[in-house]
């Protein structure tokens, strides 16, 4: 059984990290089941293990936390749905690339529920959307904007951290970093694309497509637990 938790109020990053650390240890030890935690953070930046100091343009703008996950700098804040996935890859197959691909498939299927075509690229982490309405890059490359970030960590083959989908965050905060170390392309959200999606609608789509992507629906608990 995969437990789903939804936090109604923003969760501080240290508290979220402490919860994940404890839950991952319990999953690895067989004391707890797998878990997906949906939440929002207060405005902050996190630095992955590949973060470059030069990519933090405005270090005094928001609190900065060391994440320990893969990837570089990213922004979290209200209006962004973070889904932390604590899943046991000992049972699901010890294949990191396949797991990341599953996360990408999950995000793309969720976006498709709202008529958005998500794109992935081998040289660009995350999920992107084409922006033919915007000018191409200087080299003629068509403009794409990032709509979802992906960053995970494994401990004893149990995953934590996860994905973040932009519903309606303050996109101006991305100006303080080079998001995921990728310059040139922009950042967008569902509302920025003209889609007034509610957080509850996004949560429902995430739940439905997690069932379809990761597990048989009959073994998945309803997203009813709330913190």
Largest sheet: 9 strands, mixed
Distance separating the two termini = 19 Å
Q: Share of helix among residues?
A: 10-25%
SSE pattern, N- to C-terminal = EHEEEEEHHEEEEEHE
Mean pLDDT, to the nearest integer, reads 91
Q: Determine the structural class based on helices, strands and strand pairing.
A: alpha/beta
Characterization of this structure:
The chain contains 4 helices and 12 strands, in the order βαβββββααβββββαβ. By secondary structure, it is an alpha/beta fold. Strands 1, 2, 6, 7, 8, 9, 10, 11 and 12 form a 9-stranded mixed beta sheet that branches. A 3-stranded mixed beta sheet has the order 4-3-5, with no helix packed on it. The longest helix is centred in the middle third of the chain and has 17 residues, at 96-112. The radius of gyration is 17 Å and the shape is globular. The two termini are 19 Å apart. The model is unreliable at 217-224 (pLDDT under 50).
Write a short abstract of this structure:
The chain has 227 residues and is an alpha/beta fold. Helix content is 23%, strand content 28%.
List keywords for this structure.
nine-stranded mixed β-sheet; 12 strands; single chain; 28% strand; three-stranded mixed β-sheet; 23% helix; 227 residues; alpha/beta
